[in-house]
# Entry
Amino acid sequence: MDVEAPTILTNARLFGTEGDAVALRGGRIAWVGALAGLPAALAGWARRDLGGRLLTPAPIDCHTHIVHGGHRAREFEMRLEGAAYEEIARAGGGIVSTVAATRAADEAALVAAALPRLDALIAEGVACVEVKSGYGLDVETELRMLRAARALARARPVRVRTTFLGAHAVPKGADADAYIDEVCIPALRAAHAAGLADSVDGFCEGIAFSPAQIARVFATARALGLPVKLHAEQLSHQGGAALAARHGALSADHLEWATEADAAAMAAAAAVAVLLPGAFYALRETRLPPVAAFRAHGVAMAVATDCNPGTSPMTSLLLAMNMACTFFRVTPAEALAGVTAHAARALGLADCGRIAPGLRADLAVWDVETPAELAYRIGFNPLHARIFGGPEC
# Structure
C-alpha cells in the first residue's frame, strides 16, 4: 500500500485507540480519530478505504538471534532422545556449537543466511526487529555479527535494533571471569566505538554467567551510555531479574523461574517482562513464568520469537502470540499489546508500537474480524498490507 502522499486511511477498526480513521503524512501519523470529526485542514487529503479491516501498529520482534551461522538440528534430535539442554551445553553443544559456524562465515554469508528469517517476519507485518550478537565470543566475530545486523536494515524495509550479547556463553576451555574482562568488555567497547550496539544483553544462568559477572558488563554499558537487558531466570533462579531491575534494564527476558519479588522489583524499575514461548516449547519446559504476578504488579509483558538456531528456531511472531496465550495464559489482547506497544518499550523506542499522532507510520492491516484472531489461528497469516514509515509495504 503506497501512502507516501498525505493520506487518510478510512473505514478501519483501530486497535488500542478510538476512531475509524488515521491520517498519514511524511512517514508519520498526523491525526487519529472518527472520520466525522476530521479537521478541516485535512479534508482535501487522499483517502483509502480499508473496508472495515483491523488496523494495528506494525508488530515488533523485540528478542531475536537471527544472525548466525549453521543450524542445530542434531540437538533437536538429542532432546527428543532425552538429553536436557544443560547436558547438551556442558557437552560442548548449545550456544558454543553455533560459534564455530558463525566464526567461519563472513559478513556477506551471515547476511544471506539471516535474510530468509527476516523475510518471514516481514511477511507477518513486522516493521522492527531486535538482533543480538553472541555467537562469536571473540572481538572480531561479535563485531561482524553486529555489522551484519546493521546491513539487514539496508537490505530490507525494516528497522533493526542491535544488541551486544558478548556475555552469552563461556567459550570452551575458558575461564568465565577472564573471558568477561579480556574479551567481552573489550568487544563491547569496540562495538560502541564503531556505533554498532544499541543496547547490551547477557545470559545470567548456571551454564553461562553469574550475576556478579553480568554486573561488570552492565557497569561498562552504563559508562558507555548504553541501555541493558538480560536473559534471566530461564532454567533456574539465579537472581538475574533482580539484577536487571537494579540496573534499570529495559527488559528481563524468559523469566520462567522468576518470583513474585522479582515481579515487584521489575515493576519498580519499569522493566518489561519479555515472554519467549518458543524456547519454552522447544525445550519442553514445564515451569511457567509468573504471568499473574506480572499482572498484579503492573509489569508490562512483551512477546517475541527468540528466533535462534538451537532453542527457538521459530520465525513467526503470530505463532509466538498463539503460544503465549496457549502456554502462558496471556489474553489475545495482551499478546497483541506484547508485540506492539510493550515490545517497543522493551527496545527503548518511544516512536512506534502505538497508533497516535506524531509516531511513525508503521502499521499493519489485517483481514480479520477481531484482534483475537491474530493469536487464535495457527499457521495462517491474515496480513492484508504492511505500512512501513509511509511508502513501503
The two ends are 6 Å apart (CA to CA).
